Amino acid sequence: MIKEIPEKTLRRLPQYLSVLKQFRSAGETYCSAAQIAAELSFSDILVRKDLALVTEDKGVPNQGRELLALIRSIESFLGYNTLNEAVLVGVGMLGRALLSYKGFNDCGVDIVLGFDIRADKVTTINNTPIYHTKVMANLIKRMHISIGIITVPKDSAQAVCDVLVAAGVKAIWNFAPIRLHVPSDIIVHNENMAESLALISNKLQHLGGNS
Amino acid sequence: MIKEIPEKTLRRLPQYLSVLKQFRSAGETYCSAAQIAAELSFSDILVRKDLALVTEDKGVPNQGRELLALIRSIESFLGYNTLNEAVLVGVGMLGRALLSYKGFNDCGVDIVLGFDIRADKVTTINNTPIYHTKVMANLIKRMHISIGIITVPKDSAQAVCDVLVAAGVKAIWNFAPIRLHVPSDIIVHNENMAESLALISNKLQHLGGNS
DNA sequence: TAGATTGTTAATCGATTAACAATC
DNA sequence: TAGATTGTTAATCGATTAACAATC
């Protein structure tokens, strides 16, 4: 059974990973919690606590942690080693951008199929075959796909979501600006432009008020 | 002077906004904190506390809050009414997707210019003119642009960021998978695919462990 | 009035930081 | 050994929830 972990920690782990990989390409083999913390402007105790949650390994006093082992531990904890297959629905601008993104494989996600309502014949984008939406349910079921990525316009997002869930997808990664309704055992992660803009606009406003 | 507000609350505000707009299009004119809370699976006290932070208006017992006034308060608090001009650098797949996205104006952001290293002549995408990167610093300075959106490959992201900052941009919205170094008075918001994938992968792993 | 909803004060919960002993 | 770094226990801080009086 896998440990429960605070979401706050979970969000920091990819950042640690990024810093650690940077250290590694700089030729380091060991690193201290304080080094990681300094790079990310976190407290060193926070980093130590987080790392203790994701690995059984203990750091070595006056030496720190072995870089490679630590990277492996975090990646394994995050599930980057077990490959999850995904489909992407909605091959518009955003869909194409995601299909061309190289970083998914490093995170244990592989987009194996794309679907679009306008796909009249099978084409491929970045080596991923694109099928018409009408064969979606069937293919997903047969291939036991676990992740559905929704990049359709918001008006069709819920309908697409319903088909994905019915076809057995376990997680939905939603880029449409709408809240989706799903059964309680389905994971939904919303990629939320409005949230980002809210944070940026509000911070900008503060800045203006102070200057 | 504008009130400080917890980031957690700030992230919930756009969600409230979305729910409130949905209520409004369903013909409602008033709503209670409990209604909003139910829709988002939050506690009603949390919603009341959050709303109290962003508006001077008081809710009316046995009636709730006036929808339209509440929407206006949140939007004004988030700074959606003061328009911030933005430029986008890197007109690849992702850049094009953002340029075609309609939702920015509702959030007080207007992408007025795009730049790309391969723009040999001025073209437009979705009515936004695209210039060559070499005229970027000059144009941004002259137009007093406040937000820079970075959608270039990660190897050129820091260089682009430096130019944006030097040209007077106050906030950076970074889509490149790299941590940017900026002066302390510059706002950076990272749009982080790896973070999202970390959350999804980890939750999927839990699911597998339990079933 | 009774009931629904409000806002506020106090209690709880969780996450971060401080202090410190342990150890290579 | 001395110094740097570790992990752990206790203290602090902040956010959420519970309890309750107020009011339309």
Your description of this structure?
- The structure is a homodimer of 211-residue chains.
- In chain A, helix 5 links the parallel strand 3 and strand 4.
- The longest helix of chain A is centred in the N-terminal third of the chain and has 19 residues.
- A seven-stranded mixed β-sheet of chain A has the order 5-6-4-3-7-8-9.
- Helices cover 45% and strands 18% of the residues of chain A.
- By secondary structure, chain A is of the alpha/beta class.
- Chain A is built from eight helices and nine strands.
- The model of chain A has no long low-confidence stretch (mean pLDDT 94).
- At the A-B interface, helix 1, helix 5 and helix 8 of A face helix 1, helix 5 and helix 8 of B.
- The structure holds a DNA duplex (24 and 24 nucleotides).
List the helices and strands and how they pair.
The structure is a homodimer of 211-residue chains.
Chain A: H1 7-25, E1 30-31, H2 33-40, H3 44-54, E2 65-66, H4 67-78, E3 84-89, H5 93-99, E4 109-116, E5 123-125, E6 128-132, H6 136-143, E7 147-150, H7 154-166, E8 171-174, E9 187-190, H8 193-210
Parallel strand pairs in A: 3-4, 3-7, 4-6, 7-8, 8-9
Antiparallel strand pairs in A: 1-2, 5-6
Helix pairs in contact in A: 1-4, 2-3
The first copy, chain A, binds a DNA duplex (24 and 24 nucleotides) through residues 6, 8-9, 32-34, 43-46, 48-49, 52, 58-65.
